[in-house]
Amino acid sequence: MKLPDWLRRTVPELSAIQQQRLARLPAAPALDEQPLARRRLVVLDLETSGLDLQRDQLLAIGAVVIEDGAIDFSQQFEATLCRANHQASASTLIHGIAPSAIAAGMEPGEALLAFLEFLGDSPLLAFHAAFDQHMLARALKESLGLRLRHPFLDVAELAPLLCPEAPIRQGGLDDWLSHFQLQASERHNASADALATAELSLILISKARQQGLLDLASLDLRLRAWRQRRQAPSL
Hints:
The chain has a five-stranded mixed sheet with strand order 3-2-1-4-5, with helices on both faces. It has helices spanning 5-8, 16-23, 92-95, 99-103, 108-119, 129-144, 155-162, 173-179, 190-210, 216-231; strands spanning 41-48, 58-67, 70-80, 124-126, 152-154. Helix 6 links the parallel strand 4 (124-126) and strand 5 (152-154). Helix 5 crosses helix 6 and helix 7 (155-162) packs parallel to helix 9. The longest helix is centred in the C-terminal third of the chain and has 21 residues, at 190-210. By secondary structure, the protein is α/β, with parallel strands linked by helices. It starts with a helix and ends with a helix. The protein is globular, with a radius of gyration of 18 Å. The protein has one domain (37-231): Nucleotidyltransferase, domain 5, CATH 3.30.420. It comes from Aquipseudomonas ullengensis. Residues 40-210 form the Exonuclease domain. One of its GO terms (cellular component) is cytosol. Keywords: Exonuclease, Hydrolase, Nuclease. One of its GO terms (molecular function) is 3'-5' exonuclease activity.
């Protein structure tokens, strides 16, 4: 049986400098009791060639930092990844990244290594985080042979958890931005979506603190209990 391409990929040989940079990366953080007000959080958004978790590719990374209770505009990350033989598809109409831009992008391993250096030991926030977490983890494994260990918190779950009064249950990012009267400068652009998600996250962090959830450990515990209640069969 012929294996699909994604199973047959091997990790490219890394240069000595890249190996040294990997060795200097800090350990992944824990969702501990460090106060949210002082936490450095990295808000992430990815653009991909499609929604297939196993076959589609990571094309662009956008990230911004929340620190000391505010978005730190001096800390932003943006990279387009070079993908050989990438062709325009239906997804191109959504994310707007032309094949020429992808051809001129960064070598994937170098882009991902630069992102990890930017990320440091910070937890990650993303909207519909499971998709971003899987695609990022797969890209890191394929390009760097590295396992993603950083925890993710899903803003799409935090919003209904912390705002039960909102008439939104399974809404998208646009629904929550509209609810809080936030505006995105551009949608389906990794950097712009990361910034919009960060603005929404600041509101949610404020609501978490008002509800006595002062750290990520407490917030994660409340989120797990909320998930269990939602998954419990109704009588």
